[in-house]
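Weekly structure sync, notes
Attendees: PL (lead), two postdocs, one rotation student
Agenda item 3: pending single-chain targets
PL asked that the sequence for the first pending target be pasted directly into the notes so everyone works from the same version. It is reproduced below exactly as submitted, 337 residues in total.
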Amino acid sequence: MTKAFICGVSSITLTDDERAFLRIHQPWGLILFKRNVQSPDQISALTKEFREIVGRADAPVLIDQEGGRVQRMAPPVWPKYPPAARFNALSVSTQRKAELVRLSAHLMGLDLRACGINVDCLPVLDVPAPGGHNVIGDRAYAEDPERVALLGGAAAEGLMQAGVLPVMKHVPGHGRAGADSHLELPRVDATMKELEAADFVPFQKLAHLPMAMTAHVVYSAIDPTGPATTSRKVVQEIIRQAIGFDGLLMSDDLSMKALSGSFAERTQALFAAGVDMALHCNGQLDEALPVAEASPRLDGKAAERAAKALSRLNEANPQIDPVDARAEVHSALAMAG
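Predicted structure, written out during the meeting:
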């Protein structure tokens, strides 16, 4: 019985306790961090064992591989990729920028797919605003929402061509947040008109993508007390209706300090709000256990969305020469200095 949560593990191999946890609680997916990656063969073995334990050959294995500051698979084993903002700074046409973003994401996707990873938590569709915390910073593609949508869409396309599902984040927008939600709960006091004119736009334009991740942010114009992750009003009226996203919606990491309450309470609250999938990342089983126990069976509409997302892995079409593509991206960035 697959349950509606994604978990992390502690190291590069599974412990006996983790094997038992995965076997008993049957998470839908696994998310990897730097502590979990050492070499392509090691990651391949880890992802293979996870899928064998849960009994699903296509079970999602996720990672945050954006480039720049957020690159879990990094040098010297894997190539270094630029942050999103670097592409928009190039002195080339907008369409050329989009093509370079697509190629870079495609190359990252090929790196991931070679190790058994089939979901990347990319693109970042947050639109930076004055006063916003640097936790987003150069992870954002641009300050213009239309440009964010164009370049973010190119990244998603590149990933899917490589056989990796994209996860757009952090819906409905983290760019205005004046605090780092890893450390505290940000509050955004922009008006609904301001949010609709900028923050929501990239998510609306890419609402057809298969998966999205919520923001642990309070938007006072929508819900003055509840962060998006646990706010039924934000999830139903903004993400599902105003933005029009009907794909699989997962929470951001439940261990982040923006959220309050026990792990069971956090988990119950997100499902009550209408989020499809709980995410717990740090690999600490004492935290993961209450998340697992409070997560429902993956059923109904959430199961339909999950199945539809995974079906899009069939869109893979890796028709690039990786060596040529990597040289093309490197040359464009090198010319810019």
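Discussion points:
- The domain at 3-336 is CATH 3.20.20.300 (TIM Barrel).
- The chain has one domain: 3-336.
Action: rotation student to compare against the earlier draft before next sync.
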